[in-house]
Amino acid sequence: MKVRKIPMRTCVITKEKLPKKELIRVVRTPEHDVIIDESGKANGRGAYLKKDKEVFLKAKKNKILNKVLEVDVPDKVFDELNDLLD
Prior knowledge:
Blueprint: E1 8-10, E2 17-19, E3 23-28, E4 34-37, E5 45-50, H1 53-62, H2 64-69, H3 75-85
Antiparallel strand pairs: 1-2, 3-4, 3-5
């Protein structure tokens, strides 16, 4: 049986390379909306975050997602990220 390749992605906060399923993708759509992409297939520019509350807080504090996605990320996105882990 053939061994399947596991897609690896890099967290924009910790710079760790992790399997795609262990990360959450945040996407800036072509309409410049910011959404959380649970399917991993949404159209637009994406950034990956490790599934960890500390990482989400650091992303909000340092505004790293604003730089990576090149748009202001609303606070409701960070609230949704925290709700995903609860």
